[in-house]
Structure formats: structure tokens, C-alpha cells
Write a structure and sequence with these properties.
mainly alpha; two-stranded antiparallel sheet; two-stranded antiparallel ribbon; 10 strands; 42% helix
Length: 503
């Protein structure tokens, strides 16, 4: 019976829009399908709230300075293999075209521009659970755990939405209450009139309320933690520290990091860590086959993983017209062991391939390393604000991470200099540590002040054109999909740039 209900619930989620009306559950035969127990609602959350097969962010890595165009012109005999309609469609994403939604749709690649719809489907599943679970039969522990997971997921999805489709919380020259955010939908009931955009401040107020309650509930049920495919109390505190980092609430960042670290302070020492390479592949100095390992950074088998969820059916930046940027690659020193986990050097024309995700789960991994980075940045910012003792604390946090990433024979501690140097160093470490793990780099660039980015593009004759995202460009907030604004006339579209021409 429960399986039948979940299949129907999935179908309802797939067709719902902001212009439909009624309550999801009212569409279900109450006698046959309506869930009654906490376990029933947990199954809804597992099946529809976690979205294990939904790629909520296929694109954001392509917007960043971690990606560059690949010159394939020397492969004249094989040009048609690379200059396909699909690869050329991704050029529109890579060059921040304002109409990338329509351009992808025209090429029948709609799955790459539906983060907005997918995130709200996931939110609606969470809303359904949160609206009913308190009345469901079950133990207090089960109820708290299910409710805590649903709140943490809803906080995560709204954090994602507001950072994709609105200007950053800390945007210079304004305040978050004056910035248009995204619609806040907090119940499973859908009204005829589509919701308007709430302010960025209001969205973050809801996010923080959800994640704080989630942390409390999941801490109270920590003894019943099940697996890292479900959000546990440590993962909830990690997410809270990330949210407060974006809000520049440094004390709250540190507080939540400390709580998470009390349960999982493990950092993996890459000096001794081995990738599980399939036996039929033989690694060599030029080809580690890290992308075939089952225990790379983005996997449930990596020792630092606190939570892994979703799917990463994202735009490929290996053996296509895109590749990892040389700027990123050469930011790693020769003794930085992360290089072999993140890159594959080749003798082909694309030179570099990204190979950070494990073969078993290509989802979104939340890792212990982020806790150290969040804490280090918070302490560094406190140091910059005049708290002298925080400088040494920031250095301790970043060196704790670096000792596990740099070859032991050549490792040297970073030593404290100016606050500005410290912050820039932590930002650079964050880029290296979290590269290709969506959405970190794109969202970090937004909160770092939305700097200018240049993307080179090569046509099939080897001609180079450079496309530019200017500092504080409106392109730092994605346009809402045409389908969303059509279905909801109250959804005010973001300002958009003119079609971008290369130079």
C-alpha cells in the first residue's frame, strides 16, 4: 500500500505548478492511500524529499573560473565528434547567455535548466511531511527524526534556490531586506494565485528557523542515526555553519562547527589514503583512474562524508569543448596530494579531466573538510574585525586541513601575517579543496563580491573568443525559467543582460 501511495505522490509532484489549486493529499483516496504513521511520512521523505535521482544543479560549475574552453581544432579529423549540438548548447551556459533556458530547450536539453522546478518539488515533499507528521502515529524519537530531516532538507533547498535566483545576501551597497529573493511556500496547499517573491532577508529568516529546529530535533535523536544517505545531526550542524557563513554571522558559524566536530572530527590523510581502483585498471603516474574509484571525495565511502544525496547529472567538463581551468590546476603546488584526486592529466587536446567524484555515488557530498574551512574563515573575519586571538585560531584550523592534504616530506605550516592575506589564503584553500563540488565555487564567488570572470572559447578552426561576466553582473543571479514565469505571473523576472558577444 505504501509503495502504491508513493508512486501516486510522485506523479502528483511531477505535474503540480504554482497555478494549480487544492491540497496534494486531497487528491488521494483517503481510505486507500493516505499515510497514517511516521514511518509512512519517512518513506515519502526518502522517496520524494531526498531526491536521490534528481540533479538539482547541473550547471553552476560551468559558470565559474574553474572551467575553461578547450581548443579541439588540431583534431580536424574528429571535429564532428566534439562540435555537436549538445556541446554547442553548453557554450550558451558557459558564456552566461541570458536566454540559455530557451536555447537549451530548443536543443531538447530541458533537463539541464529545471533546478527551479525540481527544488520546489522537493520542498513540496518536505512541506507535506512537516504539515502532517506531528499528527501521525509513531514514537517520539521517530517523529523528531523525520521532522528534523524534513526541516534540514527544506532549509537546504531554499538556501540553494535563493543563491541561484537572487543576488547574494551580503551584496555591497544594499541590505537583504531590499533584495528580491524567491517565493516562500511553506505548506503543501497550492493556491490559485501564484506566490510572489519574498525578500532575501525573509527567505534566510525561514532557512535559519528551519535549520535551528532541525539541529535541535536531530541532536535529540542522535542515537538513532541511520546512514549518511540521510541527514543526521552532524550534517545539520554543517549545513547551519554554511548558511551562517553566507550571512557573515561568524559566531554562529563557529558554534555550529564546534557542535558538528564533537561527533565527526575526522579528516582523511591523503598521505596514506588509497583509491579503490577496479582491478582491471592499472594506475600510472599519468593516469590515476580516480574517476573510476568507488571511494573518491564525492562518495559515501570517503571517510569524511557526513551526508551524500541527490544526483550529479551535470554538464561534462572532460573530453568535451570544456575542461578544468589551468588557472585552478596550477594553483595546486606539486606536493598537494589533492591534484591526483581531482584531475587526470592527458596527452589529448583537452589536457585535463575532472575526476573527483566516485563511481558509486555521483551525488552531493557534505564533508568534514568544509567544517574546517568554515571555521577558519569565520575566525579570520573576526581577526580582521579586531579580535587578535582569532587569527591564531584561523591558522590552526586551516593548517589542520593542510597537514592532511600536503605531502608530509615537504609540508610547512602557514604562518600568520595580515588579516587580508589570511582571508585570501583561506579562500584559495577553499577553492582547491571543494573544486567541482557544486555549488561551492559559484556561490563563493557571489559572496566574495561577484568578481569579473573571463571565459575563453575556441571554435572548430581554433579561433579564440573571450566572453566576460563583469563585476557585480546581473548574471550572478540566474533568470527564472520561462515556464515558471508563464505559470506564475506574480513571479517577477530578474534583470537580464543583453546577449553576450565575445571579444
Amino acid at each position: 500500500m505504501k509503495k502504491t501511495y508513493i508512486k501516486l505522490f510522485s506523479a502528483l509532484l511531477a505535474v503540480v505548478s504554482f497555478t494549480s489549486c487544492g491540497d496534494f493529499l486531497d487528491e488521494v483516496s483517503q481510505d486507500e492511500f493516505k499515510p497514517e504513521t511516521v514511518e509512512d511520512y519517512q518513506e515519502i521523505l526518502n522517496g520524494e524529499g531526498y531526491g536521490m535521482f534528481i540533479s538539482i544543479d547541473p550547471l553552476s560549475h560551468v559558470f565559474t573560473d574553474d572551467v575553461q574552453g578547450a581548443d579541439m581544432s588540431a583534431q580536424s579529423w574528429n571535429i564532428p565528434y566534439y562540435y555537436t549540438d549538445d556541446n554547442l548548447a553548453f557554450k550558451d551556459v558557459y558564456t552566461w547567455q541570458p536566454d540559455m533556458d530557451q536555447l537549451l530547450t530548443d536543443r531538447k536539453l530541458t533537463g539541464y535548466y529545471q533546478s527551479y522546478q525540481d527544488l520546489y518539488k522537493l520542498i513540496m515533499a518536505c512541506n507535506t511531511v512537516l504539515g502532517e507528521v506531528d499528527k501521525a502515529t509513531g514514537t517520539d524519537t521517530e517523529r523528531k527524526r523525520t521532522k528534523g530531516e524534513a526541516l534540514a532538507l527544506r532549509a537546504y533547498y531554499y538556501w540553494y534556490l535563493v543563491n541561484l535566483y537572487a543576488m547574494p545576501y551580503n551584496m555591497e551597497g544594499t541590505t537583504p531586506d531590499k533584495l528580491a529573493g524567491v517565493p516562500l511556500v511553506l505548506t503543501s496547499e497550492i493556491k490559485n494565485e501564484g506566490p510572489k517573491r519574498s525578500s532575501v532577508a525573509a527567505v534566510y529568516n525561514q532557512i535559519t528557523a528551519d535549520i535551528e529546529e532541525a539541529c535541535t530535533l536531530l541532536e535529540e535523536t542522535k542515537s538513532s542515526t541511520i546512514s549518511n544517505f540521510r541527514i543526521n545531526w552532524m550534517a545539520a550542524h554543517l549545513l547551519a555553519s554554511r548558511i551562517y557563513l553566507y550571512m557573515e554571522n561568524w559566531d554562529q558559524v563557529i558554534s555550529h562547527v564546534d557542535k558538528a566536530m564533537s561527533g565527526h572530527p575526522v579528516l582523511c590523510d591523503l598521505n596514506t589514503y588509497s583509491l579503490a581502483i577496479p582491478s582491471n585498471l592499472i594506475p600510472n603516474p599519468y593516469n590515476s583512474w580516480a574517476d573510476m574509484a568507488s571511494n573518491n571525495f564525492v562518495s559515501s565511502a570517503f571517510p569524511e562524508t557526513l551526508f551524500v544525496g541527490g544526483s550529479t547529472n551535470k554538464v561534462k567538463i572532460s573530453a568535451t569543448l570544456l575542461m578544468p581551468s589551468e588557472d585552478l590546476f596550477y594553483s595546486f603546488t606539486s606536493d598537494d596530494l589533492r591534484k591526483k584526486f581531482a584531475f587526470k592529466e592527458t596527452s589529448m587536446y583537452w589536457k585535463l579531466q575532472e575526476c573527483k567524484a566516485g563511481s558509486s555515488e555521483r551525488g552531493f557530498a557534505w564533508r568534514t573538510a568544509e567544517l574546517y574551512l568554515n571555521s577558519a574563515e569565520a575566525y579570520a573575519e573576526k581577526f580582521a574585525a579586531g579580535d587578535a586571538a582569532s587569527g591564531a585560531k584561523a591558522v590552526n584550523e586551516i593548517n589542520a586541513l593542510r597537514k592532511k592534504r600536503i605531502a608530509t616530506a615537504s609540508y610547512q605550516d602557514y604562518t600568520l601575517g595580515s588579516a587580508e592575506e589570511l582571508i585570501l589564503f583561506i579562500h584559495a584553500e577553499r577553492r582547491r579543496e571543494l573544486c567541482f563540488e557544486n555549488p561551492h565555487r559559484w556561490f563563493d564567488l557571489r559572496r566574495y563580491g561577484m568578481p569579473k570572470i573571463e571565459h575563453p572559447w575556441f571554435d572548430k578552426n581554433g579561433n579564440r573568443t573571450t566572453f566576460t561576466l563583469e563585476k557585480n553582473d546581473v548574471g550572478y543571479a540566474l533568470p527564472f525559467p520561462v515556464k515558471a514565469t508563464t505559470n506564475n505571473p506574480n513571479l517577477e523576472q530578474n534583470p537580464v543582460h543583453a546577449v553576450r558577444e565575445g571579444m
